[in-house]
Amino acid sequence: MGIYSKYILPGAIGWACNGGNSREQREKVIPLAHGNVLEIGIGAGHSLPLYDRIKVKHLTAIDPLEKLWKKRKTDLADLPFDVEYIRGVADHIPAGSNTYDTVVVTYTLCSIRYIDRTLQEVYRVLKPGGKLVFSEHGLAPDRGLRMWQHLINPLWKRIGGGCHLNRDVPAILERNGFKPDNLHTGYLSGWRPTSYHYWGSATRIP
What we know:
Layout: H1 3-16, H2 20-29, E1 35-40, E2 56-63, H3 66-69, E3 82-87, E4 100-106, H4 115-125, E5 126-137, H5 143-159, H6 169-175, E6 178-187, E7 196-204
Parallel strand pairs: 1-2, 1-4, 2-3, 4-5
Antiparallel strand pairs: 5-7, 6-7
């Protein structure tokens, strides 16, 4: 692991993932989670205070960057539900099938290397009819911007920790067994290639 990946990238990710748009988007979707919850790519735990304290029974968090998790500001003792952190990757979730009521993923699907394998794991650990709650940037509907996203993407992945600018989020979800049933889309403020967003929830099709 180089100096950039080890020391600079984690901080940059933490800053970007708690910026204005990211915070506002999390406030829209995190409260949708309920029951036994798994959050993929929890990072520094910016989502922790946004969970509905009545609806959530237990939260399991998985992320490969333990350094970010240790920087969280929320005291776990202040939360009314138990939180378990697992250092790992989402394409191999250490949980039994049909374990979770909700899986939460925000600004993580863009950077997961094995996206289909990961979503197949999410499908496996979710209960039938369970919800995948998400907020992600992705492929824009406008032809000109899509062209730029495709053009810039190879370089962006190298400097952005594997982040993709051009993932078609609904199509990826659908081909892995999820039906978007509360899907919102639109341009947000910010750098144009990352400004088109998808957010809401999708149901695991039995």
